[in-house]
Write a structure and sequence with these properties.
Largest sheet: 8 strands, mixed
Strand order of the largest sheet: 9-8-10-1-11-12-2-13
Radius of gyration: 21 Å
Shape: globular
Helix content: 25-40%
CATH architecture of the largest domain: 3-Layer(aba) Sandwich
Strand content: 15-25%
Order of helices and strands: EHHEHHHEEHEEHHEHEHEHEHHEEHEH
Structural class: alpha/beta
């Protein structure tokens, strides 16, 4: 038996007026997933425990079978692991976004125009982060480049519990009331604007009509991760396929095989087909489980891109789910697949919410559950309810 988690990040949504009160999942053409729904178990599951923020870190830990209440130490340490940073017990990692702020003279009066600096390229971002590191590096503070707008700062013997605001939560809002209370963090962000606003990379971006990455935004701090080995816990060998450091970091901490896919970007231009092909290869090469993470629906949700969100769901179905399952069936492999988002990212509010999410569980060996004609928030809400997101992994593996 082969096991698949198909995680469409932020795929769930609220009814959208422009879609006649339907959600992107209801409108998207997804014949392969809907075929599974007719013979599978649909339900709702709570991936974000009470009192925790609805980040992809917490929700993906739950989807991967870990109780966030027990093992979560912060988002940035997971990304730091993926970047290859070795953290001591007293190091604190921070996510360092490259963002676009408006140009008011006072930093506190600026607006969060773009939390991703127009999906800045990794090469451009690396130049900017090197400049930031040269300007601000001390014996305690170090900056490391990641992918696109997502980077990392390490603070030796740094503080935690700062309650910093994710920039994607305040799109198009004034940053005034969301500025960090920690004076060091605030000073770094303020000074970064002066360092970056006229950097040659940003001059070139403005000349091309693109958003400049004119400030860093620090958030998501945490200490070294405390994630147990996946194979030791579940007795199966797992692989992770994702374009983002956060998910790769969880996989590395869990001792899973992290597979790089050329052209995987974390956006709607990602290599959907390549992810599906890589998933099939790793399963046929001896791995028992593959966790396929696609960031595109979430990014579209954050940008309010309704058409893109619908299309990203269709591409997951067309270029990943369909070919992957066809390949397993051709190889004579039985399989069990779990289709789910980690959290909703509603188009209307452009950020994550803690609401339970719809899931679909299917086994090729026989029908389970009552099934439904299609996989949507509405059909799932009529099915089973699971209070603890991490329990779904046991159901996928047939351990409950």
């Amino acid at each position: 038996m082969k096991y698949i988690v198909m995680l469409g990040d932020g795929m769930a949504d609220y009814p959208v007026e422009a879609l006649g009160g339907k959600t992107p999942l209801e409108v998207a053409k997804k014949p392969n997933i809907d075929r599974l729904a007719r013979h599978g178990e649909l339900g709702m599951v709570k991936t974000v425990p009470d009192g925790m923020k609805p980040g992809s870190d917490v929700a993906n830990l739950a989807a991967m079978g870990y109780d966030p209440v027990q093992c979560y130490t912060g988002r940035s340490p997971l990304e730091a692991v993926s970047i290859g940073i070795s953290m001591s017990d007293t190091d604190v990692a921070f996510r360092c976004n490259l963002v676009t702020l408006s140009d008011e003279p006072e930093y506190a009066d600026k607006t969060m125009m773009d939390y991703s600096s127009g999906e800045i390229t990794t090469a451009e971002a690396a130049e900017l982060i090197r400049t930031v590191d040269e300007a601000f590096r001390t014996d305690k503070l170090l900056f490391y480049p990641g992918i696109s707008y997502r980077h990392c700062m390490i603070w030796h013997d740094g503080p935690t519990g700062l309650n910093l605001t994710p920039p994607h939560d305040i799109s198009d809002q004034k940053i005034t009331e969301y500025l960090p209370g920690n004076p060091v963090i605030l000073d770094l962000m303020r000074r970064s604007y002066e360092v970056l606003k006229d950097h040659p990379v940003n001059q070139a971006r403005r000349a091309r009509g693109l958003n400049p990455a004119n400030s860093i935004w620090l958030w998501g701090e945490g200490t070294r991760p405390a994630v147990s080995g996946f194979e030791a816990v579940y007795k199966v060998k797992g692989s992770v396929i994702s374009a983002v450091d956060l998910i790769k970091g969880i996989g590395i901490c869990a001792g899973m095989k992290v597979i790089e896919v050329e052209g995987a970007t974390g956006n709607i231009d990602t290599n959907f087909k390549g992810k599906g092909e890589a998933a099939l290869r790793t399963l046929l090469d001896g791995q028992d489980l593959v966790y396929i993470h696609v960031e595109a629906p979430d990014e579209c949700g954050h940008h309010g891109d309704l058409e893109g969100k619908i299309r990203s769901i269709e591409l997951i179905d067309e270029q990943i789910v369909g070919p992957l399952l066809a390949g397993l069936e051709k190889a004579g492999e039985d399989y069990s697949i779990l289709v789910m988002p980690d959290h909703p990212t509603p188009i209307a509010i452009k950020t994550h919410v803690s609401d339970p999410i719809p899931y679909l569980l299917y086994r090729s060996t026989g029908a389970i559950g009552e099934g439904a004609n299609t996989y949507t928030e509405k059909t799932a809400a009529a099915g089973r309810y699971e209070e603890h997101g991490y329990e779904l992994m046991k159901r996928l593996l047939g351990k409950v």
